[in-house]
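Subject: sequence -> structure tokens, single chain

Hey, anyone have a minute? Need the predicted structure for the following. Not urgent.
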Amino acid sequence: MFSSDAFVVSQQHTSPKCAPGIASIVLPTPVVTFTRWRVGLVGVMTVAVGFCLGCDPGVRTPSGASPSTTAVKDTTNDTPPGPQTEPELTEPKADGDSAVQVKRSIKSVDQAGLKEAIASYKGKVVLVDFWATWCGPCRKKFPHTVELFNAHQSEGLTVIAVAMDEEDASGDIEEFLNEHHTPFDCVRSFDGASDEAFKAFEIPGESLPCLRLYARDGKVLQTFAIDPEAEKQFTDDDVATAVIEALKK
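Reply:
Had a minute. Here:
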């Protein structure tokens, strides 16, 4: 039984199920106000219910009041990524697309950087595919490069794709690579599709698509490029035949 002057009882309560180090949610502070009205058993029950709200893992709000919660991020398992972390895989899209989405780190390279990458694969046959997201013929031929790699990787073939795109096209590059389940390395031209970049990479006629095949010792075997004056352009079969011959050596 309470009477006389009004007074306020308040209490903060944190869920006892939250272990140390794990983010917890601070529930709204239950407030019970007693006025000059005499409050009997109902008052006691109100206090008990107010404290019990803190035991519920969900967040509840007394009738007539608005929720007030603060999202707390769990940083317990946050680990700074290393310089060469594995690509992070995400779940397949809900629309039924079974492709595994890969978050790729696409590096930009100049001529010296590309030569260094090729040299790191000494002992393997290396096929460099110069392409771009804005190049229709490149997009059409790229799946064949993927098929070649999948068919001959075990024999010693590796592929380096060089996207002749600007920096702001990184998202488009990543989307295209995931669309075709690209399993090999892809870098981006440091100078994009500038004249300097085409000259530095020695792409004949500054035209795409262009592929260059390297022997196991790092020497250039053949370059497949567009020749506007030629009666017949190179085909996917031409590239495949050259790759198979190089793998035999």
